[in-house]
Amino acid sequence: MPWEQNIKKQHLADLTSRWGVRLPVETIDETDPNKRGFLTQASYDVPLAFTDQVLDSPVSTGVKQIWYPINAAYNAAQGGPIEVDGNWQVVVRASPTAVSKPVTSARPATR
Questions:
Q1: Res. 97: pLDDT tops 80
Q2: DSSP string, the chain
Q3: What is the pLDDT of residues 44-89, one digit of tens each?
Q4: Which helix (H) or strand (E) holds 28?
Q5: Which of 84, 72, 90 is nearest to 30 (CA)?
Q6: Which residues, other chains included, contact 111 with Cβ-Cβ below 8 Å and sequence gap of 6+?
Q7: pTM of the entire structure?
Q8: d(CA 61, CA 83)
Q9: How high is the pLDDT of residue 15?
C-alpha cells in the first residue's frame, strides 16, 4: 500500500483509475456507539465498525453482517472508503450512521 507521502498524491491512482476505483484520503467513523467494537486478539486493540448493509452478490451469499477495521493510520485508515464506477457491483456499504471524514495534510488521521 502507499507510504506516508500518499497525502500529496494518491500513489495508487495511476493503477486504480484504470479499473474505475478511487481511494479517497478519508477515514470512516461509526457514530453509533452500539456499532463500535474492538479486535482484542491483535497485539493492540483495533477499532471495528459494524454494518449489516451487505448486498446480494455471488461473493456475499450467506453473509448478513460484518465487522471491519476503522483504525486511523497516518493519512488514511485500515478500512477506508472506496469509490467505484458503474462497472463495479457494490457488495458492502457502511452503516447509515457511519460518516467519512477527510484527512488533511495539516493534521494526519492519527492525531
A1: yes
A2: ---GGGGTS-TTHHHHGGGTEE--SEEEEE--GGGEEEETTSSS-EEEEEE--BPP-TTSTT---EEEE--B-SSSBSS---EE-TTS---B---TTEEEEE-BTTB-TT-
A3: 888 999 999 999 999 999 999 999 998 877 666 677 889 999 999 9
A4: strand 26-30
A5: 72
A6: none
A7: 0.78
A8: 23
A9: 82
Cell reading at 39 = 479486535
Instruction: Give dist(CA 80, CA 45) in Å, integer.
Output: 18
Q: Which tops the pLDDT comparison, 6 or 69? A: 69
* Residues in a beta bridge with 49: 36, 68
Task: Assess contact for 110 and 76: CB atoms under 8 A.
Answer: no
Question: Which amino acid is it at 93?
Answer: R
Residue 48's nearest CA partner among 63, 29, 61 is 29
Residues 28-35, mean pLDDT to the nearest whole number = 96
